[in-house]
Amino acid sequence: MRLVRLAFAVSDTLRHVGMPAVYAGSSYDGLSTGVSGAVVFHAPYTDASAGVYVHWMPSPALLQQVTRPEGPDPQAVALGSAAQQAMHTAIRGILTAGGWQVTDHFNSAAGEDYLKVTTAPAA
């Protein structure tokens, strides 16, 4: 339950500054499809991977251009990569300014970079 509360608080911090953010539940549920913006979820494991994570998701339209059957649109790939890098930097800066501790996390199973939020702001 603690991780759920932390995940909601992370989402609230991001939304407070105007960033689109959605809580996507547990990593067991899988990331929500069709959402874009900062996707916040929690991993309720019993090892070091337990915690709250944030991942930037581009718009469904951009994802379609990157994953189209005839091959990815090179401009869409470039835009998506630039947005992911810029938004992870922005999310890290916002959360750090809000008192959260944020570290990089590479999900080898998904092949994606996430931000792991490990410490809440002091009350």
The sequence of SSEs as H and E is HEEEHHEE
Strand content: 25-35%
Spatially, the strands of the biggest sheet line up as: 1-2-3-5-4
Principal-axis shape equals globular
The radius of gyration computed from the alpha-carbon positions, rounded to a whole number of angstroms, is 15 Å
- Which structural class fits the helix and strand makeup? alpha+beta
For the largest beta-sheet, the strand count, sense and barrel status come to:
5 strands, mixed
Number of strands: 5
Total helix count?
3
Q: For the terminal residues, how far apart are their CA atoms? A: 19 Å
Q: Are there runs of 5+ residues with pLDDT below 50, and where?
A: none
Mean pLDDT: 90
- The amount of helix comes to 25-40%
- In the residues, how many domains can be counted? 1
